[in-house]
Specification:
This protein has 5 helices and 9 strands; from the N terminus they run ββαβββαββαβαβα. It is α/β, with parallel strands linked by helices. Helix 1 crosses helix 5 and helix 3 packs across helix 5. The longest helix is centred in the middle third of the chain and has 26 residues.
Amino acid sequence: MSAVFETVPGDPGTRLLAIVDHASNAVPADIALGIDPALLDLHIAVDIGAAPLARALCARLGCPAILATVSRLVIDLHREEDSPGLIPAASDGHAVPGNQSLSPAARAARIARFWTPYHAAIDARIAADAPGLLFTVHSFTPRLETRPDEARPWEVGILYNKHDAAARMAIRLLRAAGVATGDNQPYSGAALNATMDRHAESRHLPYLAIEVRNDLIGDAAGVAHWADILAPIILACRNSLA
């Protein structure tokens, strides 16, 4: 495991690769965010349940994964390098003072330390394994603190940008299984799809960007339940498109 990513071993012959951008709430000791440590347990710091769910999916599918090992409050690896939100000054109403006055040199240093090697590792793994389908695992909060009246009723969201074949198939299969599924909800992949834009869309490589509501995967039973639902859908998409 490096300072920015962990590789979960798996068989490249599955032609699958899982990616988890927000798998960790870790903050390196030499970075002071200036926040209440309790915030590191919230969705603003980590995609709750995403790492356990990805590991469970890899165990069922036999495939490898790359999981980030740094909090999204240090640097959001699911953003473009020049995005204003790459190093967040605030998130869901919570200020991150340690990120608010970074010099251009300090910003560049954080990008070089975390963002660049993370995405280079994904590039290298794709080049080595030639997967036929990428899938990312994220989770979303049922309700944003800044929008308390806007409940998010979906159990799963499937996000996509231009290359939507796998997404369309997964949405259909999930809905057929009785899962309340968001079609580019709770937000649109046309606006926020940075990792898959970089690694899948740019290669015309089929992909699934999966978001699960985090209250459904907050414990081992929930993780196992959703891994059982999602694993065959991922396989169906791979078998049809890869």
